[in-house]
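Side project, low priority. Logging it here so it doesn't get lost.
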Amino acid sequence: MKQSIQVVIPMAGFGSRLRPLTWSKPKPLIHLAGRTSLDFLLDEFKSLEKDFTIEYIFIISPNGWQIKDHMEANYPDVLCRYVVQEKMKGQSHAILLAKHLISGPMIMTFSDTLMAGDLSFLKDATQDGIAWVQWNPEPQRFGVAIEDENKRIVQLIEKPATDEHKQVIIGFYYFKEGKALISAIEEQIRENVSLKGEFYIADAINIMLKYGAHFTTHETDLWLDSGVPGTVLSSNQYYLDHGFDNTAEAKKRQNVTIVGNVFIAADAEVENAVIGPSVSIASGCIIRNSVISNAVIGKNTSIHNKIIKDSLIGDNVKLESVAEKLFIGDNSTSFSA
């Protein structure tokens, strides 16, 4: 008989570091290698399906209907519940909004935390919690897990002042009992344990540790991110280089030069172009007379006569260079954006 497990994913944030792309869509629906960031996130839990019945709890914004539409269209048999977060008061606040739904074993992660690893070992987990970590030589930009000699976590520290502890927390956690986390969050909010007005999950876990909870770490080899433009592009490159490309099909196109690994949607029109490396072109695009490298191009976007690199371009965009009448003096230089 399968065990039950809940996967709680806060995704109501504004995605301000990815604007203007996130003005019109939630961050989890940003395109990556022919799919969305959310699709790759859900892949992380496939290794649980043999031993667990999974219930997803998505904490969405008031405009999060696109998440529901995506799940209903692409994952109709997946059990999902939705909780709306109207005020952004941090990670712990988001989870507390789902208090009435949370019970039993649970995983909590964030919508821009992309990792890989077999989770099937959780069926035999006995500890109260697990924090996924990765070694990083510059831990000051992240949170870290401090362990004792028995590999038991004694404290989580956000953005430590030194690089003494290099086990960086990636934002992926297991809890043997979700209600225990809820109790810790309630104490955290009562005591106003916050940073710049926001309540962080690390502080809630520290409260659990204070009362004797047994937490350990689990190291992951792969940790990607889709929270800022640079990491979206690097994640796109990783997935294209690890089997999510359709380079072989793309090379069959006439009058198109393919460089490296790419994904070009089957219905995209691409003519007289050089595409790649590390380019993802979504459905409905029209690309003509252009050179594109290291870029993610959204749906139904039209690009004519452009050189584009290191770029994220959203859906329904039109980019075209046109002939201009110019009067330019001596010793001038003109750049076309």
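Brief comment: The chain has two domains: 3-228, 245-320.
Revisit when time allows.
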